[in-house]
Write a structure and sequence with these properties.
Order of helices and strands: EHEHEHEHHEHEHEHEH
Largest sheet: 8 strands, parallel, barrel
Bound molecules: 2-phosphoglycolic acid
Distance between the termini: 16 Å
Number of helices: 9
Helix content: 25-40%
Radius of gyration: 17 Å
Shape: globular
């Protein structure tokens, strides 16, 4: 049975208190529902400022969620004001989302910058979750060289935050093409995933999970997705 990735991308949302409330609410219902997550990897990506407290709460609750950062510096530690390095992230997280289209568009992240971020993450044993909005974006030497160590998330622009997801058939076709180019690699689908449509994506052969934005902000909706 394939292992399903379910990644919550909180984007620029939540305070420390709200994070604590989310984790406690998720945990309470998770234990009542006795959900088996042996075949799943459930990952939460909060803002940098929340990672430490989220890690602390997960430890206290003994909750089997893994943390991801939403970004990583393209540089090693040093004189890079405002950046957070892979080494700093590694203290709390195992994954880093890289190249989300909101970063490529709002912060002018080029494919060269994305490649540097992948490199920095891998040097510190953080698994990159590399977002692409079209198959052409995998023609990045960094992606093909390190493909066995990456997770790819296919997120078409039109589907992000629009309530208008791609069709499972098209997402499956794209995932198949990505695997044809890169070989056996985990490919996730992202864009307007909710508890009502998640199964239509995860049941198809080449999609190995989902990246969830808006619907992950509510712990009970995210639990429903899980
Ligand atoms: P959405 O966001 O689920 O709100 O569409 C997905 C994402 O941007 O990762």
């Amino acid at each position: 049975m394939k292992k399903i990735f379910i990644v919550a991308n909180w984007k620029c949302n939540k305070t420390i208190q709200e994070t604590e409330e989310w984790l406690h609410e998720f945990d309470k219902q998770f234990k009542i529902d006795t959900i088996d997550i042996d075949n799943k990897k459930v990952i939460v990506a909060p803002s940098f400022t929340l990672l430490e407290h989220a890690a602390y709460c997960l430890g206290n609750l003994n909750l089997a969620l893994t943390l991801a950062a939403q970004n990583v510096s393209p540089f090693d530690e040093g004189s890079y004001t405002g950046e957070v390095s892979a080494k700093q992230i590694k203290e709390f997280a195992k994954y880093a989302i890289i190249g989300h289209s909101e970063r490529r568009n709002n912060f002018c992240e080029s494919k060269e910058v994305v490649a540097k971020k992948i490199d920095q993450a891998l040097r510190c044993s953080l698994t990159p979750i590399v977002c692409i909005s079209e198959v052409a974006q995998i023609s990045n030497p960094q992606l093909s060289s390190f493909k066995s160590q990456l997770v790819i998330a296919y997120e078409p622009f039109f589907a992000i935050g629009s309530g208008n997801p791609d069709t499972p058939e098209n997402a499956e076709k794209i995932a198949r093409n990505i695997k044809k180019e890169l070989g056996e690699i985990h490919v996730l689908y992202g864009g307007s995933v909710t508890s009502s449509n998640v199964a239509s994506f995860t049941k198809v052969a080449n999609i190995d999970g989902v990246l969830v934005g808006k619907a992950s902000l509510d712990p009970l909706e995210f639990l429903e997705i899980v």
